[in-house]
Amino acid sequence: MRKTLLIILICATFSACNWFKEKPEIAVVLSEHFNNKLYNKFDTAVYLPIFKAKLEEQRKGFLNPKLITAFYEKNEYLPKLITKFYVNGQLDTLKAYIAGSKADGFNPEIFNVAAYEQQLQTLNKNQFKNIDEVYNLIADLELNTAYVLNKYTNFMAYGSINPRNFFNRFYIPVKRPDSLKMDSVLHTENIVATLKSVQPTAKSYLQLKQALANFSVSRGDGAAINIIKMNLERMRWRLPKETEELVVVNIPDFTLTWFKQNDTLAHMNVCVGGKREAAYAEKMKVFLKSGRLDDKPKNHETPQLFSIFNAIQVNPIWNIPVSIAQSEIYWMARKDPYYLSNNNIRVYYKGKLVADPDTINWNRYPREKLPFSFKQGSGDGNALGKFKFVFDNSSSIYLHDTNNKYGFKLANRAISHGCVRIEQPLKFAELMVKDKYQYDNLRMDVDLPPIDTTKNAIFQKKLAKKTDTLNTFKLKPTWYSPRKSIGVFIAYYTAWADDSGTVQFRPDVYNYDPILWEAIKRYM
User: Fold this and answer.
1) Which member of 113, 141, 147, 327 has the lowest number of beta carbons within 10 Å of its beta carbon?
2) At 502, is the secondary structure helix, strand, or coil?
3) How many beta carbons lie within 10 A of that of residue 235, not counting itself?
4) Closest CA to 300 of 413, 411, 205, 212
5) Which regions of 276-344 does DSSP assign to beta strands (E)?
C-alpha cells in the first residue's frame, strides 16, 4: 500500500513540474533546426494569450478577418504556418514573391514586406535571451504570414479591387476570391505551389509586365508608368468563363480581335458608343428633379461585358430603343411626315401596327409619354445593316453591320448609341457559322453568290423572286445558329505591349483611367 501511494505521489510531483508534458510541435521544429534547447521551453499556455491578443488587435487589417480567426480557432491558435513552412524555406520564398510584386505594379509595402523580412531575420539569427522574446516574435510572424499569404494571392489572382464597385457600366461578373478559396490557401500543403498557381500567365499580361520593367529602368515618365499599372490591374480581373475562342472588343482602340487560343482569326475596326455628356452627374440630378427629357444628359457609352454568342440575324429588324425614339425618331417624324415610310419604319400603338404612320399628328403626343414603339424593317436602309450578332446581356447590346461605312474611317470611332458596329461583318459571319453550307445560304440571303457554284440555280431563283414586281417580295430576317462556345468580351484597355515589346497607348475615351487610379493608387 505504501509503495502504491509513493508512486502516485511521485507521478503527481512530476506532473506538477511539467516533466511529462508533451512539447508543442513548434518547440520540436525550432529546437531541432537551431540545435537550441531554449525552444524546448515553449509553453503554449503562455503563448496562446499573447497570440489571441495580437490577433484581436490586428484582425481588422485582414481582407477577411472572420476567415482568419476561424482558421486559428480550428487550429487551437497554434503557429501552424511557421511550423509547416519555416524550416523548409517556404516562408523565405513567400518573402521573395511579395518583394517581387513591384514588377506587377504593386508597392511591396502593402504586403508588409519590410516588417516580414525583419521578423524572418530575427528568427534566423537565433539570438533570443529568453523564451518570452520568442512568444512575441512567433505570434507576429505567424499573423503576418497569414496576412501576406491571403492578401498577395488574392491580389495576384483576382486583382486588388472589384471593378463592379467602381464602374456603373461594368457588367462582367468577374471571379472574386470567396471564403472557400481563401481558406484553401491558408490550409495549403505547399506555399510555393500556391504562389505559382496565382501568377497571371496570359501572354498579354507578361508582355505588359516586361514593358513596365523597361519603362521603370529606362524612362522617368510617371504618367505612362501609372497607365501601365492600371492596365496590368485590368488584366488581373478574371472573366467568369473560359472559352476556346474569344472575340475581344477593345473600346479605347476601336478594334475587334478574334482569338482562338494563341491564334488570331480576325482583326478589324469597330465603332463603339459615344462618350457621355460633360458634367453628366450634375445634369442627371437636374433631370431627376425636373423629369423633362430636354434635361436628360446623353450617355451612349458601350458597357464592359462578357457573354456567349447565341444567334446570327441576317437582314435584321431594328427594334428602336425608347431613348432613340424619343430623342431622334420623334423629331424626324415631326419635321418630315414621310420620314417613317421612306425609312421603312413601322409604328405600333399599344402593340398594334399603325396602318398609315404618315398621318399621325405628332403634336398631340409629348415625347416624354410617347405611346408608340418603332421597328425598322429589313433592307439596305436598315441602321443595323445586313447582319446582327446576338448574345445574352442585360443592356440590349449586340454587334452589327451598319449602312454608314464612313464611321470606320474616323480616328475617334466612339459614335454609336452603345452597340458595336463592325467593319467586316461578312468575314465575321463566315467565322461564326457552323459550316460551308450555312455560309452559302447566308451569302444568298444578302444577295451574294454562293461559294459552291452548284447552288447558282438556287441563287438565281432567289434573285428573281426579289425583283418580281408582280408579286411584292417582303424581305424578312433569317436566323442562323453560331458555332458553340464563342465568347465575346467588351473590354477597356488603354495600354498593352505588342510582340516587339512596344507599349501601345490609346486615349482614355470614356475617362475611366482617373476612376481606376483613384481606386488602386494606395496599392501601387
Assistant:
1) 327
2) coil
3) 19
4) 413
5) 305-314, 318-320
pLDDT per residue as tens digits for the range 134-181: 999 999 999 999 999 999 999 999 999 999 999 989 999 999 988 888
Cell of 390: 446576338
Residue 482 near residue 432 (C-beta atoms within 8 A): yes
Percentages (nearest 5) of helix, strand, coil residues in the chain:
50, 15, 35
Instruction: Please state, in angstroms and rounded to a whole number, the distance separating the CA atoms of residues 8 and 13.
Output: 9
User: By CB neighbour count within 10 A (0-12 exposed, 13-18 middle, 19+ buried), where does 333 fall?
Assistant: buried
Contact status, residue 124 vs residue 34, Cβ threshold 8 Å: no
The one-character DSSP state at 423 is: S
- Please give the model's pTM, rounded to 2 decimal places: 0.90
Across the chain, what does the average pLDDT equal?
91
Q: Which of 102-106, 182-186, 244-248 has the lowest mean pLDDT?
A: 182-186
Residue 215's DSSP bridge partners are none
Per-residue pLDDT averaged across 40-55, rounded? Answer: 95
Angle at 308 between CA 305 and CA 314, to 5 degrees: 105
